[in-house]
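Input.
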Amino acid sequence: MIHPFHGVPGVLDMFIWPAFQSDSRANRLKAYEVGTSMTTTAPQQWVDLCGPEEAATQVELAFASHVKQVEVPEDRRSDWSHRFLLPQGIPGQLIPLLKILEKYFTLTKVAHLDFAMAFNWYKIPQDGVEPSKWRNSTAGELVHRSKYYRNNPSAQRDALNKLIDGTAQIIEKHPLLAASPTVVTVPGSAGDGRSVGEKYAAGVAARTGKSLVSTICTTGARKPAKEAGSAHLEGTFFIDVHLDGSVIVIDDVCRTGGTFRATALAARQAGATSVFGLAAVRTLRN
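Output.
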């Protein structure tokens, strides 16, 4: 088969495949590279990223006074999606943040959130196996046990505590999350303040020494998001205290992002200047 552009000078040379193909649900940073430019009289350091826009956003937010985003040089665009100049050298927390972004998911843009993260997919895709029979990821299994091991309270508590411990460790390493003074809960479908997601958020707040603020749903009990969806929830959540600065909205599972959106909107209406989302797992569907 002859390629349609075969014999047309320069056409293939002009087209460069994007360095990073984004998944509409969530993405990890694929790679990063720190280098020094010797083309000027004063050598300048830079860091190139191959990853989603949402990962670059976290770098900009965390190091606003230390980095400057510029275009990736043409000869590197097939491998790298973003470049940041580092006029003051490498910020101390930059590399740890990039390692976090390589290991954990950044969700695609969610309204009212500056960014949102999840530790993993809920389940591990397996070729030739029906999705209903896919195994849970490590984080997914902890969420599953925290939610459904009611007949084994000890195992249920142990799973939730492991989730809390792991989440607290990530928050302490992430410069934006570490600096946020407040954790905000996502209302559970029962409307009683006792959902696994709310217990998870409360445990993380206690473990990290942050204030805990509960979000209230004006409609009370509702159908679980996995049954009724969550697109209709914006405007039904509210927070009855004033929030200062940045906050972290924490939930156990992110499906469509609807409860994140509704909670983040409530947080901004209560005064939060920045809102970050953190979920233990992201579902593969939706």
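Confidence is low (pLDDT under 50) at residues 1-7.
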